Structure formats: structure tokens, C-alpha cells
């Protein structure tokens, strides 16, 4: 069967008051019909979430499923939810964790795609226009079905040339019009003064004004998890860390051809293998689409061309709390977003062809490219430093293209549904925002091709995990009823929705006057220990699952995540009865994940024993004086004992383990001491912006200032100079 491009929507953009009123009336009636559908659906929803072991038992014991979905990303989870709510017996397997791939490494936007609309208009491309229209419909639906995980985000488009103002304003207004009744808020123009008031970090030189439009933002990994958990509550048998070894086939007696009838699966954690039989198998494996297609038939051509998108996270002070920024034309023609997220700032993305790998690594050249583009839009007063990059990641976009194409930037991310001769249903391409409509198209095709008994999709308006009982003010109840910190309560409400009460009930008493419950994993982030316990209920099997996808600590700050790891492993070890050997393995694997996939390696390489020292003689003299305040014996190096002695003299006390960690960050040759040359390499890296917020550098500077104050002679003169 030939590949079909799946594009839906109407042919024209409606405008005008009467048409808008008619559209709103239609929308209201449409929602009423959806509510009636959902009432039928809700009766089958369970409040109890089966354990992972129970899910594996269901996969083994069920004689035959109607649908087996391979892949636990946004699209695969969406397919499972669509199938199970059509009353199809549904299974889903994922070889890693839910959202472990591309679905957790996005720009965190729920959007129609301003740049796709621009291409559609410039190239008169109806297909891209319809993709944008479909995405805007899905944006509205996603904001409605998971209000706790989503939010409106105003995005500023700064204008530096007068002629660009009408050009971009017209484009953004068309974006509003295409959304129609589902337009989030109307876009508007800002004067230069107002733009700088709202985004004070913006470069003011030659700024003409700005345009602000609205899109949605979400917590992508937790959104993916919410979709999967919702499918499980409706009765789908879902299991992470369960890989497909090979596809099962049987000869169809009527057609005389081999047909896919399930998959041989392996529990990655235990190594046990078992068969999962199904009338229909859906391939929703994202960048790994072609691997499963070739498992079906080695002769199948590649239909997926992967593209790497790198993002970086920098401190929240780089952007306002409630305003994003769009650079529509970077130095090489790409688009860069600069967005507030989880009280940090995300910048990205790149778009370069790449090899398919389950563990993509952010490259230093991509990180520097993003930093350079950010500098072009921020005020010279704001020093954009390499050392401020707290985390970085690369996600592989599963773009659908002609295998002969070389330019991934010009590829439209429409999705395709393909059914092979053996009946394998493949869904490929698309984008995060349209996961639901992609799933609907996939199930429509599967039902038709396999003669499954099922009605139409019921997922429009279907509330996801945590949406029930959530309100914008529920965090106040969490504070009042459980004694949680306000910041922690807000975080729990926005991450778990109505399920936040379950997390709060698990929280341990702190023993302090306030907060009463809720011990933080690390001081500067609102993640608490009970979230680790709850993560296991949400099928977390490894420490990486917790730091990367149940919480987002690994994506926000790799050093903070590393600091939290021992406690996370300890809590999981007790809950899952891990051996000491397993604990060590988990700790090591999580550190490797942070080091390579979350940018810790690129960060640590900014300071090495081969780093060039670019300090002036005056600076070297100043730092030598500072160093000798700690190195009293002129050994040429300092140890934790030296630092401890100086700190005690100024009444500062830090425990030995913490001091060891602080010095170890600068001990480049790992000999247990910091030599003068290493200290100069540190200060040179700080000067160049390659390293920031280094604890030893700040500690030694602060201690020197305190020592200088105590060493000053005390004057005996009266303030007025009298006798």
C-alpha cells in the first residue's frame, strides 16, 4: 500500500464578526457532542494504576490484543490512548522509558508553527498551510485537556528594521486568523519603550518596536507520561523497558500471504522473553521507524531522515518570567527560540542532519552557535557566558522525507501513515503538538485495514492524567492542608494536577517549624523526596527516569541533578529492594547520562589541565596573593585542610565532604590538591566566561575580603576629629 500524507482541515480561512460568531456556535455544539462521547468513555476509566509487574503479566497472559503499539513516545502513547478509548484491547511496549527519546527533548512549545505558515504563504504551499491549521486546532485541545501541564506563553518578535514591522505583523495576524475561534489571544504591536519595559534584557540599539503573539508551552516529558498513564487507566497494558526482539507472523489462509500478528518481546530489566499477539501492530518508534520496518521486511526503503535539534538551559535571569523571544532569521537562516521554562531559560534549536542513536549528545559547536545568536539579541550589558549553560541536550526529529533529500531544514513535518503488505501500520513524521490527530489517523487506517470493530476517535476533549480536580489555586490547599512550601506546592500542582495530593500524602515530616512536610532533593529546586516514591508508581525503573522525566532536574541543572542522585538512588533502592551493587550501577549510569546526554561533558571541558591561561601580569599577581592566604607554607598547592583552617578563622564552617567536592571541581589532575597553576586556569576560565558560579573561586574571594577586613588597623580617632 502506498504512503499517504495525512493532512486534514478546511480550505479557507474564515474571518469577520458574523463568521466568528457562527464558528463559535459550531464549536460549542461540537464540544457538547464530545462531552456526550466522553461520558460514555469515562465509565471505563479506573482510579487504580496497575503496577509494572501487573502490566507485564497482562501482556503475557492476554491471548490476543486488538492493537499492539510499539513505541512509548508522544505518538505511540497517543495511539494507545486512542485505541483503548475506542474499546479496542490495547497493548504498548517501549524499549526504554516513556518519553525517553525525542518527546522529552523538544522546545517545550505547543504551537502551530509560525515558520511553517511563512513557508506556506511564500511558496503557496497548501499542504503546509493545512498542517499549521491542524496544529492550531490541536494546540487548543491540548491546552484544554491538560491545563496543569500547559500555559499560554506570549512570545516577542523584536523588530530592528522599519520595513519588517508591516511584513511580520501581517504574518502574525494571519497566524491568528488561521487559528480562528481557537486563537489564544490576539497578537499586538509594542513600541520600543514598551518592548524594553517587558523585556529589559533586549538589545536597544536600532530597535524599532516588537510584535507579541501567543502560543502554548508544556512540560513535554510529563505530558507524554500523562498520555500513557491515561491509557493505562482506561485498561491498556503498557510496559516500559520492554523491547521488541522480532515480529511474529502467520500465513493468512485467505490471502496466502504472511501477516504480522504480534511481537516477541523482552523485559530489558529481567531479560525474560515472551510473545504478545495482536491483530494489528503499530510502529510508532519515531527516529527508529525504519528499524522496525526492516524487521518486517529487509527490502523496505528508509522513509525517515533524522535531524538533530540542540537546546541549552541558562539561568532564569536571562529572560522575563512570562515572555519568550523569537529570532526569525539567525545568521544561517534558522529560527531560535528563547523561552522561560521552569524558572530557567531555554534557548534553541539547531537543525542539522544526524545519525540515529538512542543516546544523542549535544555538540560544543551547536552550544556555541546558540550562545552567539542569543548575544545578537541581548543588551551588551548582559554578558552571555559559556559557563552559564546549566544543561544541554540533543533531540532527534523523525522527519519524513525523500531519502535523496539533503536539506533537512526545508522538510515539512507532515506525518504519514503507511500499511505494509504484511499489515504493519507505521506512523512517522509529524510534530509534538499534533500527536493526537496523528494517533487518530493511525487508528482510522488500522481499523479499516484490519477490519477491527471500533467506532470513531474519542480523544478530542478527553482529560489527561491529573487534569481532573486541578484548579489554578489548588496549590493553596496543598500549603494549608499539608504544610508544604508555596514553591513546592505550586510545582506539585503544575506537575501532577489533581494527583498532587497523593504525592503530598507521601511527603515526610521535616522536623522544622516550616515547611512541616516536604524534604527537598536539592535546595534550589522544588522537587521533594516523596516524588521519587511516587515516580515508582508512575513506572520509573531507574534513577535516570526520575532525574530526566518524572522530575526535570537533569534537564534544568546537571550539577544539581548529580547532587541529588545519591538520595534518589537510596530512596529507590529501599522501595525496589536494590542490592548495593545495583545501587552503584544506577548511580554510575545516571552520571554517564548527565555527562554525555545532558551536556555535563561539554561543560566540564571548559576547564581542563590543558586550558590556556589568558591573565595579565597584574591579574596573576592579584590571584597569587589570594592563593597564598590559603597556602601559608608556600607549598604551591592547597588542600581541604588549608581551606578549612582559613574558613574557621573567619567563623565559616563547611563539612569535610562538601569541601572535598568543592576542591575536586578544580583539581584537574585529580591528585587530591589544587595547585597554583590549576587555580590560575580556573580564574582564566572565569574571566573568559567559560566557567561561572564556581564554588572555590567565590569562596576564596569572599574569604580574602573577610581576612583583609580583619587585618586592617583600627583607628583611634574620633569621628569628628576632636580631642
UniProtKB/TrEMBL annotation:
One Pfam family this sequence matches: DAO
UniProt xrefs under SMART domains: EFh (SM00054)
GO CC list: mitochondrion
Primary location group: mitochondrion
Coiled coil residues, start to end: none
CDD domains membership: EFh
EC number: 1.1.5.3
The reaction(s) this protein catalyses: a quinone + sn-glycerol 3-phosphate = dihydroxyacetone phosphate + a quinol
UniProt cofactor(s): FAD
Domain of life: Eukaryota
Single biological process term from Gene Ontology: glycerol-3-phosphate metabolic process
GO MF annotations in UniProt: calcium ion binding; glycerol-3-phosphate dehydrogenase (quinone) activity
Keywords: Calcium, FAD, Flavoprotein, Metal-binding, Mitochondrion, Oxidoreductase, Repeat, Transit peptide
EF-hand domain: residues covered: 618-653, 654-689
InterPro entries: DAO_C (IPR031656), DAO_C_sf (IPR038299), EF-hand-dom_pair (IPR011992), EF_Hand_1_Ca_BS (IPR018247), EF_hand_dom (IPR002048), FAD-dep_OxRdtase (IPR006076), FAD/NAD-bd_sf (IPR036188), G3P_DH_FAD-dep (IPR000447)
Pathway entry: Polyol metabolism; glycerol degradation
Protein name: Glycerol-3-phosphate dehydrogenase, mitochondrial
